[in-house]
Amino acid sequence: MSEASFQQPDRRKPEPLWYQVEEAIRAIVTSGEWATGDQIPAEDRLCALFGVSRITLRHALRNLEEGGLLRREHGRGTFVRSTTLVAGTRALTSFTQEMRNMGVVAGSRLLDCSLTTANAAAAGALEIEEGDPVVRIRRLRLGNSEPIGIQTAQLTAARVPGFLDAGLLQGSLYEALERHYGIVPVAAREIYRVGAVGAGDAELLDLPAGSPAFVVERITTDERGSFEFTVSIMRGDRYEIRSTLRAGRVPSTSRS
């Protein structure tokens, strides 16, 4: 790699040095100069190339590791990891935005988009009657062109009139819903379960049938209530859940 690829941080900018280094490394990975599995230069070399201290560099590397872009191996070094969606404490975002935040190019392949009726689970999630019309969108989700999961979203049809004829699935679904229907997500509830990939989904995900997967149910609401119920089957080897636990005082119990 040419040393010209390493953009040293501008100390006149308001952004912290570690943030500028983090974004510079993210850009190198996103451009493909560092491919999946590549070992990145050692810390002392990176410090010299970016012109920053080891503390600053480690701050940037830690953020990229926690974001799923890099993988540290004790005694070996730091590597560009395979496309992995890391779940944990995060903002309410679309898949497209979440992947973008990780420096990964999001993609999808539309498997089905049709008008159907709500079953009991969808009706309960969307707060409608069983049998009411819903728009069903089934997509293979990709990160850097690699399959990550299969998402099946159901939207309350009454909230999105004309959706099937509008050609709104070229990019982010949430962006399309906001632009065409004024639907802006304000909250979501997610439930994670461990499951196995079925035969039909396994072929799409390029996995053996029965491989471990995360099954994620998501109910998304706007100011008017629930509008989306999504069930995702995410590859167990490309999806992680991370959380930070902090010590705290245990509330005292009083007796009277």
From TrEMBL:
The HTH gntR-type domain, residue ranges: 15-83
Xref: InterPro entries: Bact_HTH_transcr_reg, Chorismate_lyase_/UTRA_dom_sf, Tscrpt_reg_HTH_GntR, UTRA, WH-like_DNA-bd_sf, WH_DNA-bd_sf
UniProt keyword Transcription regulation, yes or no: yes
SUPFAM superfamilies, per database record: Chorismate lyase-like (SSF64288), Winged helix' DNA-binding domain (SSF46785)
A Pfam family that the UniProt record links to this protein: UTRA
UniProt GO BP: negative regulation of DNA-templated transcription
Keywords assigned by UniProt, alphabetized: DNA-binding, Transcription, Transcription regulation
Record-level Gene Ontology MF annotations: DNA binding; DNA-binding transcription factor activity
Stored PANTHER family: MANNOSYL-D-GLYCERATE TRANSPORT/METABOLISM SYSTEM REPRESSOR MNGR-RELATED (PTHR44846), MANNOSYL-D-GLYCERATE TRANSPORT_METABOLISM SYSTEM REPRESSOR MNGR-RELATED (PTHR44846:SF1)
Name this polypeptide is given: Transcriptional regulator
